[in-house]
Design goal:
alpha/beta, two-stranded antiparallel sheet, 11 helices, single chain
């Protein structure tokens, strides 16, 4: 069984979309399992439907207002580097409403419903393909995987949204008596889960460089510090997921093709810039083509 796995990575998901489009449209890869975490969960339903152009148009045209119903930070560009600072008014307003997070991402939930229609969801449910998103159950201290086969339309849209909620900047969702947050807090790259579900050939898109090429800019404010701390934690989770995935693959004779970003795309994936994301989608497409051309040259 062939599987496509897409890691978390916020706005960098545009790169993953470009890679996946090449694999699906040019190499004619027919995946039976699509597994995504966070930003990856936004892509996989449409990729399974082979609607690459539709998700490309949507994905590369979003901005902060498309995601946040209450954005907890300002973005300032200084010396070619984007810096975020706390939006005291929005954060204070969120706390007055009794929220547990700095900001809210309810606009993203609306966007998911507007992009994935009920008709498309029905097509996925009756197809032979399985679409699975990763979520973190904070209450039970566990990672959960939600399949399109197990839920109705509205609930599955909720799980996609929850998988993307980069807490504490985005919404913390209470569902079935538990608090849920971004799937990346538990599993950034769900390769092991793909293997457990029967995958024998895996294409894994990792929204990070294979080696660390940069030092983070010094934190200028509390938001900068928190984002750096969370990114450090997620980077460690991602590396551990890859190691575990490689180990599981070796034990079960599973082949994995990794697609890492060739360069550092951004140091803050909470910033959604339309021009940048269009460029990253194109970069992903080109990178996948060049990588597979190299593989074909090596193979006898």
């Amino acid at each position: 069984m062939r599987a496509l796995v897409i890691s978390g990575g916020g706005s960098k998901g545009a790169f993953a979309g470009g890679v996946a489009q090449y694999l699906i449209e040019e190499l004619k890869r027919d995946y039976e399992l699509y597994l995504g975490t966070s930003t990856g969960s936004l892509l996989i339903s449409h990729l399974a439907l082979r609607e690459c152009e539709k998700i490309k148009q949507t994905y590369t045209s979003v901005d902060q207002s498309s995601i946040f119903s209450n954005r907890p930070f300002h973005i300032k560009r200084r010396h070619g580097y984007d810096q975020i600072s706390i939006n005291h008014f929005n954060v204070f307003r969120n706390f007055l409403k009794g929220r547990k997070t700095f900001g809210e991402s309810k606009n993203l939930r609306k966007l998911i419903s507007a992009t994935l229609t009920k008709e498309e969801f029905s097509r996925l449910q009756v197809s032979t393909k399985d679409i699975v998103v990763t979520v973190s159950n904070i209450s039970l201290n566990s990672v959960e995987y939600k399949s399109v086969k197990d839920f109705e339309y509205e609930e599955f849209c909720d799980w996609i949204w929850i998988s993307c909620n980069y807490t504490p900047f985005m919404s913390l969702v209470q569902k079935n008596g538990c608090e849920y947050a971004d799937g990346g807090l538990g599993t950034m790259v769900p390769i092991e889960e793909a293997i457990q579900r029967g995958a024998t050939h895996i294409d894994a898109v990792i929204l990070q460089t294979e080696a660390t090429f940069y030092n983070r800019m010094p934190s200028r404010n509390v938001f900068g510090l928190i984002t750096n701390l969370f990114q450090f934690m997620l980077d460690r989770i991602e590396k551990q997921n890859i190691k575990i995935g490689k180990f599981a693959a070796a034990n079960k004779n599973v082949t994995i093709n990794f697609y890492f970003t060739p360069t550092v795309l951004t140091t803050n994936s909470l910033i959604f810039d339309e021009k940048q994301m269009k460029s990253w989608w194109k970069t992903g497409y080109t990178y996948a083509r060049e990588k597979n051309e190299e593989i074909n040259q090596i193979e006898p």
